[in-house]
Structure formats: structure tokens, C-alpha cells
Amino acid sequence: MIPLDTIPFGHAGRLVLADSGSMMKVLVVGGGGREHALAWKLGQSPRVEQVFVAPGNAGTALDATNVPIAVTDKPALIQFAKENSIGLVVVGPEIPLVDGLVDDMEEAGLKVFGPSKAAAELEGSKVFCKNLLHTANIPTATYLTFRSAEQASRHIWERYCDPDEPVRVVVKADGLAAGKGVIVCGTRNEALDAIDRIASQREFGDAGKELIIEERLTGPEVSVLAITDGETIVTLPPAQDHKPAYDGDTGPNTGGMGAYCPAPVLDDEMMARIESDVLVPIVHAMKRARRPFKGVLYAGLMLTPGGPKVLEFNVRFGDPECQPLLMRLKTDLADVLEAAVDGRLGEIEPLEWDPRPSICVVMASEGYPGDYAKGREIKGLEAADAIEDVKVFHAGTKLVDGKVTNDGGRVLGVTAMGDTIAKAKLQAYRGVKEIRWQGAWCRKDISDKAR
């Protein structure tokens, strides 16, 4: 826990409530693996009477009650929450956060966990994020912003005159692109093609109205998540995601093909450095920008030879990082999230964690992250869930005539714990082997980089 006025370091935890007997209903907004994990964990709270998920998926239908309301239907979500006396709303995905769902719900008198629309721009606009990082002197890659493909292409042609010269840049769409609007480039032609895809072809829609070209950093990537009420920061154990589609970190970027927690690449000294050099300054910078931040701060970092540098900020639990994190959490999640909403995170004791590591292996549809077929029946889910220390979190699934079918690119997050990372991996892939549908695939090396 980090009180922002004193900044002592330490990892936070279990909440002591003045009134721990009050029961409440919870609404989780979203329908992916992150939301299944949130609903599952919130449902374990003795204070939670019922968990609703809107719109949910086939997995949340087992662990909670699904509500057929889209995450973008703000009036219907607000009406449902008020009519059902929802005591806490937890917004999972970035799209409704950036769209201002939290603001509208608070205006309607609801208690909701997540950042405001103004604060969510930290993820909603990479240009805003990079400019804020620069202003706050938070370490990040050097960058330039462009408003057109012509400007960006001209920069590449002028900067890299020799076609054989290595080009170590990353081209990023400014707006939300489901984790796919980041293209790593090694040649001039690759950079020009990335600019064309983002800004001319608009492969990622309006996210490409502006773009960033930044230096390509080297080093291991790691995710550090924290919960904050704007005054206190509760840092969670570090996790490591696997963004590229294929083994060995090859292939196109995805929303995430798996994650494990904790990440041994970060020791206590490095965590303290990230807290002091990244988390505390960004919360102060948001406050100075009159965008006070409440919710989950997700720092995507590169551990470069010169120290940790910020790749991006997200404003919600990561997916799939959320799944292994919540598998290990022993503290009542409802208490912690409610304290963040109420501005009472300073009243907590250290969070309680299962000491065993956990990993999540994402099973995807054939063709992902490109086009894929839907509606294929998934078998073996019960057998996988029956394995000791394994939980199958659903992401892109749907119930059709009583059968679970694939309904997205990333379909399942098979998550497991073990005494060591190797044993957790073994359990997770045991679960994977039980599950089958036409075209199912996954990476085989999730957590190997922890060795």
C-alpha cells in the first residue's frame, strides 16, 4: 500500500471494514475471461448476495446470473442496476470505461468501480498517455505523433534513407484496438506497411485517426497492476503476459495468449522502483491534470538495460493477467473494490495471497487474431474443471441449445496453480488436453520465460 503523501513501499491487502455484515448484489459489466474471473471471485465473498454479469458468457452463466445487456447500452445497464438494488457495479472492459459509463452510473446514484471518462483516456488515447508520461518525467520510449499517413510515411522515408538499414520502431494506433493496434517493425517497408494499415486502410477503425512512432525497446515485458482510490495505491503481484500469437513470442500481436503470476523477473527492489518512478507519479500527474484516477492502473513495462520503461497504461484489469491474479487472491475482492470506490484504501492490511504461482493458458479459435469461425461445440469443459487446482474461465463462449460453443477469438483461459511455476504449467496444460473443438489451438510455452 502506498499513501501518496508519504510514499512508503509495501504490498497491500486485506480490508478491515467497519460494517462487514452488510449484504449486497454486484453487477459485473462485460463478457470476457476477465469478467468471468471477477464474477467468480466476487461470488466467493460472504457479503455478496448475488452476482449478475452483463452480458456474460457460457461460463459466467454457471458462476453467476447473466443479463442480456450490451456493455455499450448505458441506459439499460443503469436501469437494471437501479431496479435490482445493485450495491456495487464493476466495469471490466475498456470500451465502456472510455465511453463514460462510470460517470453516468455515478450521476444516477450508483456505486461503481472504475475510472471516469476523463481518467480512462489514459488508455483510450496513446497520444494523451505518452504526452502525460513525458510531462511527468516517467520513463518511456522516445516517440513522435502524427495525424496522417502522409506525415508518418514522410518521417520514415527521411529518417531511414538506406533501405537496408535496420529500423527498430513500433507503430501504434492512438485509440482502442483490442490489443492489436501495435505493430513492431524491423525494416523500412514494415514500418510503411504498418502506417498504411493503421492510418490509411483504417484496419483498426477510428483508433487510427492519430498514430505514434516510437523507439523499439528491448528487454522482458512485465505487467504491474495496482488498485487506487486516488489517494492510496495497492500494488498487486507482478504478472507476465504473452502478446504474440505463437510460441517463442513470434507472430502477430493478440489480446494476450496467456499469463502467469508472480513474475520472478521482478524482485522487491525493482517493484519498489516501479512504484516510486511510475505508479506514484502517474497518479499525481492525473490529479494535476484534473483527471483524478480511481480504479485499476495497469502498467505495461519493458525492463530495459536502462531500467523499467512504460510501454502503455491500461485502466482496468488485464485479460488474461486477471485470471491468474484472482486465482491466487485470498482476500475478499468485494471489500477491496468497495473500499476503492469509497476512498478507504488507506484502511487496509496487507492483501492475502496463495503462495503458489498460477498460470493461464488461452485457447483460441482457428484463424485468430484474424478471421475465425463461430458456433463450434466445445467438449471436455467439465473434465478440465474437475482437475485439482484448475479453473476454466470462459471468454468467447456462448450457450446454444444447451451446448457451449465458441463465440470469439480468445475462447477460454485454462488457469491453474501449483507449488512451482512448472507444476502450475503442467496442471494448466492437463486441463487444456481435456478440451476440444474444431480448430482449437493455444501456445505451448506459456510461463517458460519464467525459468
Automatic annotation (TrEMBL):
It comes from the Bacteria. GO terms for molecular function: ATP binding; metal ion binding; phosphoribosylamine-glycine ligase activity. InterPro entries: ATP-grasp, ATP_grasp_subdomain_1, PreATP-grasp_dom_sf, PRibGlycinamid_synth_ATP-grasp, PRibGlycinamide_synth, PRibGlycinamide_synth_C-dom, PRibGlycinamide_synth_C_sf, PRibGlycinamide_synth_CS. Gene3D superfamilies: 3.40.50.20, ATP-grasp fold, A domain, ATP-grasp fold, B domain, Phosphoribosylglycinamide synthetase, C-terminal domain. It is an enzyme of class 6 (ligase). One of its GO terms (biological process) is 'de novo' IMP biosynthetic process. The keyword rRNA processing does not apply. Belongs to the GARS family. PANTHER family: PHOSPHORIBOSYLAMINE--GLYCINE LIGASE, PHOSPHORIBOSYLAMINE--GLYCINE LIGASE, CHLOROPLASTIC. Pathway: Purine metabolism; IMP biosynthesis via de novo pathway; N(1)-(5-phospho-D-ribosyl)glycinamide from 5-phospho-alpha-D-ribose 1-diphosphate: step 2/2. Keywords: ATP-binding, Ligase, Manganese, Metal-binding, Nucleotide-binding, Purine biosynthesis. It catalyses: 5-phospho-beta-D-ribosylamine + glycine + ATP = N(1)-(5-phospho-beta-D-ribosyl)glycinamide + ADP + phosphate + H(+). This is Phosphoribosylamine--glycine ligase. It comes from Rubripirellula reticaptiva. Its EC number is 6.3.4.13. Its cofactor is Mg(2+); Mn(2+). Residues 130-342 form the ATP-grasp domain.
